[in-house]
Structures are given as structure tokens and as C-alpha cells.
Specification:
Length: about 160
Amino acid sequence: MAGRTTIIIQGTAWGVRETQNGKRYLSVSVSPGYRDRNGNWKSQPEQYYSVWPAGYANLNPVFDQIAQLRQNQDQFVDVTIVGEISGLDAYTNKKGEATASCNVNASAVAITNVRQKNGGQQGYGTQAGYTQQPQGQAQPPASDSWANGGSDPEF
């Protein structure tokens, strides 16, 4: 894959938007920062991403799930996105801080956590519309011959 750079973004999904011609995208923000040598948190300017499905990716199921979760404005949806940057805009926000806005063509979007405004949270897992069970023992599919100590499958 010469000439392609894949990025991973971990941030907060604020909602699913739709253009006038019906294309859907996800609004995501990231508040980066780091701990200095004394352990104090140093905030960096917030970054904003418009996350578009890559041409081959069907992200509608996960977009629908995020839109449903965000109907409750007291829920914050944390996501992890895998994709490629397709455009970047640097500007100064209303507070006079340098910030960036970026378009991303995503091949995958995963819901990693749902947080409540008051600090409560629930574990979560979705990738490109496929749901995992929130925290607990997952059951293998009935057709999985490896799952229940069965013999090796025939190839």
C-alpha cells in the first residue's frame, strides 16, 4: 500500500450529520494532552474531525447506533476510528487558541465506551456495525467446531 497513511483516532462522537445531498458523516472531537514531569495534566488545543465512510465501508449500522445513543444528550459516546486523512484546516477558535479540523475517510468505527454526564459509564464494543456483548462471557457461535473442545474441523 504505497503512498497511504492510516491513522487511529480515539475521541468523542458528538453526532451523525447529513449533507444536503444525503451523505452522512460523524462529528468527533479529541482533547489531547499529556502529563508533565511533575504529573500535572497539560491540555492541548482541541481537534475536530469529520469522519466519512471510505468508499468501500458500510458504516451506516454504527452511525445509526451512535445517533440513537446521542439522542440522550447526557450520554457521551467514545469511539475509535481507523482511516486516512483527506483534508485539514487549521484555524483560531473563539478563545484565540490554535485548533484543527480534519476530514477522515474511515474504514472502521468502533464504539469503545458510553459515558454519562455525571461520570457513570458502561463498557461497549462495536466495529463497523458489528456488536460485541458489553462486559461478560461471550458465547461462541453454534457452528464453531473449535469452541466446545470439538475435534479439528475438516479442511
